[in-house]
């Protein structure tokens, strides 16, 4: 995914996710200084409602959060503005799994111990999924998709796509 961003990358009402947790998604509600703290801060109203305040800090209202504990101030390097639809496709369907991905393939035993799993036929499955022009269904859930990319790029790369899961992404509009 995209590396850290500076404050010029963010704008009000933009969807973002935490750099460390792509499942922690929210909306930018404030960009600027916070009294008593140096530098630029981004006020985020988190979708899951798990944060520190309602958009006010030390008696100063910076933004209006949806609930008493859904807002927080975050440094720009701890937020990700997302990637294009096609970048997400390449990450999910073209890139080879890393050793870290391979290490995460496990199940828990009855005694709650990690047992490694070997995926039989993995190369065959990866080969089929890597032929994007043949895909009719895909899932890009929680990859940080924030924009569709260049015009016609999607239809050129995945012309047969009929079903798409974009759960937990950052799309606020699709033009």
From TrEMBL:
Keyword hit for Zinc: no
Subcellular location(s) per record: Cytoplasm
Subunit structure: Supercomplex made of cofactors A to E. Cofactors A and D function by capturing and stabilizing tubulin in a quasi-native conformation. Cofactor E binds to the cofactor D-tubulin complex; interaction with cofactor C then causes the release of tubulin polypeptides that are committed to the native state.
Transmembrane segments: none
Name by which UniProt lists this protein: CAP-Gly domain-containing protein
A GO CC term assigned to this protein in UniProt: cytoplasm
Species of origin: Salix udensis
Family: Belongs to the TBCE family.
Signal sequence segment: none
Residues covered by the CAP-Gly domain: 32-75
Keywords: Chaperone, Cytoplasm, Leucine-rich repeat, Repeat
Key word Cytoplasm present: yes
Gene3D superfamilies: CAP Gly-rich-like domain
UniProt-listed InterPro entries: CAP-Gly_dom_sf, CAP-Gly_domain
